[in-house]
Amino acid sequence: MAALRRDARRNRELLTEAAHDVFTEQGLDAPLDVIARRAGVGNATLYRHFPTRAALIDAVFRDQLTGTMTAGEEAREAPDAWTGLTAYLDAVFTTLAADRGTNDLMTTRVDGVDSLQAVHAHNRETLALLLRRGHEEGTVRPDATVEDVQFALAALGRAVPALTAATTPDAWRRPLALLLAGLRPDATPLPSLLPGTALTSAQLGDVLQELGPHRTT
User: Fold this and answer.
1) What pTM, to 2 d.p., does this model score?
2) Out of 50, 98, 199, 202, which residue is the most buried by the measure of CB atoms under 10 Å away?
């Protein structure tokens, strides 16, 4: 029995490792039989451990999602709203740029992933708190709503894999700086220089091509 339990535990580890690699390469819609083959097990073994795609996704990405919530807690404790907001978004976008699977998970709707629902709720609470403080401190324009920010962040976050594939791993910093500048009150001076390098026409074409339909084969 002990040997069987060890085998089952090892199969589960192989499946989560393989799923992470495949989801990162192909996105969250990747065929589950591809994951089973990559892990070296049969489909029946996969479904025995993970009866649904959502259960597998939850097991693979729970740690990354928990890290996002930790960044949110740290942002809430920042000495001022703007410091907390910029540090939080830097942490979130670093995660989105590092892992295609996590990016897919956080910028699209996936039902049934319990840890994801908790992260979305925590993210909204963090943004609401920081925006409210920013309004009070005069560092965030008073008409900016949580939904405004969430929409802008989701749109930019979704483009991050294409942007980094066509340019450099930290190319997202420039459009994020522009987004943040738009949240500042009119009287607040904008940064004198944007981070990173502007896209060339050719690079923009590459990014737009990458943003086309995802291929899973």
Assistant:
1) 0.80
2) 50
